[in-house]
Amino acid sequence: MPLTAALALMLTPAPLSVPRSFDLRAGSVDRRIIRDGSDHGVEPGKTGQGFLYSVTLPEGDYRVTLRLGDARQAGDTSVKAEARRLMLNHVATRPGETIERRFLVTIRTPALPPPPANAPGGAAVRIDARDAQEFTWDNKLTLEFLGRPMVRSMRIEPVSAPTVFLAGDSTVTDQYAEPAASWGQMLPAMLDDGVIVANHAKSGATLKSFLTDLRFDKLLAAVKPGDWLFIQFGHNDQKQEWPQTYADAAFTYPAYLRAYIAEARRRGAQPVLVTSPERRNFDAQGRIRETLGAYADAVRKVAAQEKVALIDLHADSRAIYEALGPQVAPTAFNDGGRDKTHHNDYGAWLLASAVAERVRAQVPDLAAHVTTPAFVPARPPAASAVAIAPSLIRSDLRPAGN
Predict the structure, then answer these.
(1) Confidence category of residue 18, pLDDT binned at 50, 70, 90
(2) DSSP secondary structure string, 227-259?
(3) DSSP label of 31
């Protein structure tokens, strides 16, 4: 199981100075179940649909090179990293064929650079019980091989590359278990192997709680010149019944957005504002009812005033849901459609596709890294055309902040 914050602080692996290689063919010694004292292996619970493989590594950024294929069998390999970040989607191999694929991934622990004596701050991110269940806040890289995975070998080496940091709530975060999913964990599969996606979003988070939980400190500790910071909050900030974190759309919310923008710019990173996707509430005419309009308008206004790139996911989500219609739109949402806020794999893919398309138009220096075809929100593909391989871990619990 992933380590607690305290253990992560004490058990930090030595820096990786040379690449590490693993034989992942069925029956190889590297494919044994991981045990106490071993620093790599298959996580318990593998099924006929795939397996989880972990390697103990220090916090940092890595290039993973996979050789896929089998001498006798056809394969259909999908790969997810850490808490189900989609890295490779349905890589087909014929019998006897070998294909090499690469992607970049980041891993982290809760540890923070400790503040000087007598200075305010903390030594670790405040993670909760749900966080501790994830393969995110530990000292391992965990990869999930899904579908009909045919994996020959894996090579891991440290890398330095520009990073897309994501700060947001449950509609952005890496959801730990099926059937919930968010656009942030689909985005890596839509970008090439020249950039890293570091998803720091948290279910239930607000602009204020992201600060008080020291999640923004953790993110900023890794930001470097040439990176991007995508900022999407609103679903929880608007909740007046949460008095400690409520931010009104007219004054407090835009002020906090500007503070986030300033922190990114101070470190040489490019801030990008993202409007929150709307909730799936249809009126009698088949149009989506407005619940986040004031917050989306505030984001648009701040983006214009601060000359910041804008990803208008609020507008695109409405277009997607209305194009699907009241009968089909629930098939893009968590909990069999009973959840009107959070998505499943299909819905997360649609929203990530909208984000990627906006990146092409609004973020020129990142646009060259987008690999997916053009996406039109008013003409979303059917679920059968997306078909993300489901992860092995499932949960009936809805994301926090629901």
Answers:
(1) low
(2) -EEEEE--TTTT-TTSTTT---TTTHHHHHHHH
(3) G
Q: Does domain 161-390 have CATH number 3.40.50.300?
A: no
* Reported pTM: 0.94
Report residue 34 as tokens. Answer: 């991981």
Per the CB < 8 A criterion, the answer to whether 23 and 155 are in contact is no
69: left (phi over 0), alpha (psi -120 to 50) or beta: left
Predicted confidence band of residue 15 (pLDDT cuts 50, 70, 90): low
Strands (E), 57-98: 60-68, 75-81, 85-93
Q: Which fold has domain 1-18+29-159?
A: Jelly Rolls (2.60.120)
**Sign of the CA dihedral with 363 first, then 364, 365, and 366 last:** positive
Chain centroid to CA 12: how far?
Answer: 23
Closest CA to 271 of 231, 225, 214: 231
**pLDDT tens-digit map of 347-371:** 999 999 999 999 999 999 999 999 9
User: Per-domain residue ranges for the chain?
Assistant: 1-18+29-159, 161-390
* Tens-place pLDDT, residues 310-328: 999 999 999 999 999 999 9
